[in-house]
Fold this protein.
Amino acid sequence: MAIIVPSYKEEIDILETTLRVLASHRHAKACYDVFLAMEARDPNGVAVATSLIDLFKHKFRDLQFTLHPNGIEGEAPGKSSNVSWAAKAVEKKYVNQPDWTDVLITVMDSDTHLLSQYFELIFQNHLRTRGEIGLSDVTFYMPPIVFDRNASRVPRLVRMADLMWCGAGLSCFNGRARRDAVAIPTAVYTISLSLACLVGGWDTGSEAIGEDLHMLLKCYFATGGHLRTISIPSPASQCNVSTGKSGIRGWAANHQARYSQGLRHMWGSLDTGFAVRQWFQLSQRRDSGSKSPFGRESSLPSHVLLRLKLGQHSVHQGEVKRYTWRNAVVFTRLFEAHFLPNHLFLVLLASALYSSLIHPDNQWQILSYALDMTSYMRAAGFALMTIYFVIFYEKYHQVCISAREHEMRRAGLYEEMEDDFSHRKRWTLTAIVDYFIFPISGTIFGSIPLFQAIVSHFWTEKLVYLVSAKPVKADKVREQWKDGV
């Protein structure tokens, strides 16, 4: 298992915690090959990576760092170009080994905490899939996410924005593997090295700013729509955006940081155009046989090319269709992510403006009836969404907290991380107020950033990539960790 942890100007405490959690897994020393993907633009990148390697070098099968150069022509600074550089190092290290098709690549954010169960379930699914398909494991593995670490210490609007983000991911989670299912990854996912080679690796341009969704779409269309997406029932623990500042200025800074993160997320609406282009090219792929659609075959060894071509042939089975139910599901997911938040905001705004006008006679009665009906539908939708979160999400949050507490106790890390468990209680005033501000939080951190991104795309597709602000451990805890490693 190759694990890529991209980092740019991240606090060393964040990375220490992530590696300590990974090192607590029972198969870490035998199976985990960790790549710290650092940036040359980060003046402390090499020093941080070297320090972490000294601390954890005996905890994993291998631990190294890659240094993504600055200023490569055609590349845009960001997570995708950094991961692409690290993935090339993974490919160079493993692609000539006899069992290279069994190498799995996990990409995870620097603040993500994963349970050992996540990797164990992936290994099981991978072996089963290899037995079914043969030469290629064209599967995209991903966990749901949960913001369960510092949610009680961030402003309410920020907390609810992330909770809605988590709920959106859960909406496409599949308890059972279905061939027509398409789930959207968030922050963490795993693919096989052979699939990464088949699609030509990670894109590095500004259109790939939504790195996780972009890679899913790239793999999906490169395999002619035959990519399997499997949701792994082992949630990834995430931190809410937090600047660490206190008082009024800290409150404002946290909201500003969350808006910047929302704008970066919504800038990924560029992926809708990417998906449309790839969809139109599907018929061309059908006629091109087993040739890779992304043109990186010539850089791979001949025996690797043979395996990939045979694997791609077994996956495609001569059928690459443009009009399928799965393609409709993919574009439905894109509509939910990149159109629906803005559509809802504009409909509400237009309805409010129209309702404030004096209606001219009876010629607009049908429009009035339509607006009244849709307002009732929106109210019903909000009520159902609230019920969903109160009944299902609250239980999900509790289960996630319990599972992580159990594993941290088993690993002897619970006392050090006791403050990193943000519990929620269903029937409290705090929870009730949270749900009532759903529309406000969704508009500020969803609809408005999406509207800004879409309008900005008329002029440019480039956005300055800002790393999300994360909470930092106290120095005394950091020293305890160093002594205990």
